[in-house]
């Protein structure tokens, strides 16, 4: 096994060697639950789901922690606008995220801590930073505590920035700060804020800063040193830069690798509600099956920009159908009683592509080549060739979490239920047509074909029977 990943901190692809043999600790930043999930959130979770699955497929035992930021300025602002308790709003959107993740088959993390459940751990980290001379309570009695960026020489090293060129931290009143880039570890309680968003601390009542939350949670569950810290590219600065600074300033080794997924755009432009060029996971799931949405969001290299265009989901659906049609035809041919006894296999070229910083476009090319070879073998009635292709396709789709025969993609969703119902009805028509043909009743056979065609159903006849599909 020679896994190689791109590490944002060193800006290089290098060999991945877990800190503990055979085990991987992975933390990736989850949502600040202040609204519905957008496509960027889901792409990020999917990228780390693909990473997790590949590490597991490589024989590693993976511990995954993904946090929920359930206390934050934005949550308080939105809740006030809605005239709703902030904790109710946060929980409502946390469920919306869970639903979106579940719909796309994103594996549950090993643990999903909420920020509000880790205030004592955050206090301990702040106290440590003050003691080491890297943090200070604001002199204005606001209750704020700031990280002193000038006290930490490596500040800026994750994003390769010079401190003097960096943006000011816009997270608190700059008057109490030694440097405008100093960021809030603890935010003092202000008049008019909800009492439920207030925790006592040695520096005054208040609530935690966002960056501090992740550092405290990752350390609690994965230790002071762990293998991979991930998140969307938009989190690199200031969030991850600040996480790394405060944790390393506290004496923690922190992450060995930093992995960031690329953004999602719409026809080359950043999605924005004001421009109206947005599409969210809910809307995607209204026009495509969950398996198709997963395939679409997971097909690009995780570090590249994924550009959504109208038609993207139709193309993804066609790709999924090619895989699905082959698997169903091959399974029906080779295992008429079910897929019992089938051993999934991974082609070497697929493994090599995935080992190389998760090169999913190259891996998918191997998958589609195998499907083509499988179809050729099926047509040539070459059972050995069909079986080999089927095992490969099964192994590759399992590794990517897109195996169409998995129960995940059969249950739930009206579209799936409708497709299943349609399959039963059309297959009954096809059986009647096969019987008519056997009896040389060509009029009846043609009548059935015409009825199906009028309903928008195409039939492809082969020596092994007929396969139906919806007309494009
Ligand atoms: Zn985070």
UniProtKB/TrEMBL annotation:
Its cofactor is Zn(2+). Binds 1 zinc ion per subunit. Coiled coil: none annotated. GO terms for biological process: cysteinyl-tRNA aminoacylation. Keywords: Aminoacyl-tRNA synthetase, ATP-binding, Cytoplasm, Ligase, Metal-binding, Nucleotide-binding, Protein biosynthesis, Zinc. Residues 349-408 form the Cysteinyl-tRNA synthetase class Ia DALR domain. Zn(2+) binds at residues 29, 214, 239, 243. A motif ('KMSKS' region) lies at residues 270-274. GO terms for molecular function: ATP binding; cysteine-tRNA ligase activity; zinc ion binding. A motif ('HIGH' region) lies at residues 31-41. ATP binds at residue 273. Its EC number is 6.1.1.16. It is found in: Cytoplasm. Pfam families: CysS_C, DALR_2, tRNA-synt_1e. InterPro entries: Cys-tRNA-ligase, Cys-tRNA-synt_Ia_DALR, Cys-tRNA/MSH_ligase, CysS_C, Rossmann-like_a/b/a_fold, tRNA-synt_1_cat_dom, tRNAsynth_Ia_anticodon-bd. Transmembrane segments: none annotated. GO terms for cellular component: cytosol. It catalyses: tRNA(Cys) + L-cysteine + ATP = L-cysteinyl-tRNA(Cys) + AMP + diphosphate. It comes from the Bacteria. PANTHER family: CYSTEINE--TRNA LIGASE, CYSTEINYL-TRNA SYNTHETASE. Monomer. Belongs to the class-I aminoacyl-tRNA synthetase family. This is Cysteine--tRNA ligase. The gene is cysS.
């Amino acid at each position: 096994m020679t896994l190689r990943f791109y590490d944002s901190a060193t800006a290089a692809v290098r060999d991945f060697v877990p800190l503990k043999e055979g085990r991987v600790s992975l933390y990736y930043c989850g949502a600040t639950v202040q609204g519905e999930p957008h496509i960027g959130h889901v792409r990020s979770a999917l990228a780390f789901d693909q990473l997790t699955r590949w590490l597991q497929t490589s024989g590693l035992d993976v511990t995954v922690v993904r946090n929920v930021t359930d206390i934050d300025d934005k949550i308080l602002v939105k809740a006030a606008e809605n005239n709703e308790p902030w904790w109710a709003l946060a929980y409502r959107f946390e469920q919306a995220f869970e639903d979106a993740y579940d719909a796309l088959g994103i594996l549950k993390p090993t643990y999903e801590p909420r920020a509000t459940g880790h205030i004592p751990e955050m206090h301990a980290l702040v106290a440590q930073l003050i003691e080491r001379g890297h943090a200070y309570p604001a002199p204005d009695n606001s209750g704020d505590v700031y990280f002193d960026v000038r006290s930490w020489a490596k500040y800026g090293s994750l994003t390769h920035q010079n401190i003097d060129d960096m943006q000011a931290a816009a997270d608190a009143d700059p008057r109490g700060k030694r440097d405008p880039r100093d960021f809030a570890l603890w935010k003092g309680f202000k008049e008019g804020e909800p009492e439920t968003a207030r925790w006592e601390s040695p520096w005054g009542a208040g609530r935690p800063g966002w960056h501090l939350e992740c550092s405290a949670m990752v350390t609690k569950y994965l230790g002071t040193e762990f293998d991979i810290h991930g998140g969307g590219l938009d989190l690199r600065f200031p969030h991850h830069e600040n996480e790394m600074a405060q944790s390393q300033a506290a004496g923690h080794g922190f992450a060995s690798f930093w992995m960031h997924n690329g953004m999602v755009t719409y026809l080359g432009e950043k999605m924005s509600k004001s421009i109206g060029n947005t599409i969210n996971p809910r809307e995607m799931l209204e026009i495509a099956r969950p398996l198709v949405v997963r395939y679409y969001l997971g097909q690009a290299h995780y570090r590249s920009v994924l550009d959504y265009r109208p038609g993207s989901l139709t193309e993804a659906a066609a790709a999924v159908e090619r895989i699905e049609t082959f698997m169903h035809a091959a399974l029906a041919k080779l295992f008429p009683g079910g897929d019992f006894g089938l051993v999934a296999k991974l082609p070497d070229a697929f493994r090599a592509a995935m080992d190389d910083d998760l090169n999913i476009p190259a891996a998918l090319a191997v998958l589609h080549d195998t499907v083509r070879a499988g179809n050729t073998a099926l047509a040539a009635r070459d059972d050995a060739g069909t079986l080999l292709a089927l095992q490969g396709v099964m192994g590759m789709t399992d590794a990517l979490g897109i195996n169409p025969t998995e129960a995940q993609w059969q249950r739930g969703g009206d579209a799936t239920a409708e497709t299943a119902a349609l399959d039963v009805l059309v297959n009954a028509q096809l059986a009647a047509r096969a019987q008519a043909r056997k009896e040389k009743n060509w009029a009846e056979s043609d009548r059935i074909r015409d009825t199906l065609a009028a309903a928008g159903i195409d039939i492809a006849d082969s020596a092994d029977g007929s396969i139906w599909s919806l007309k494009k």
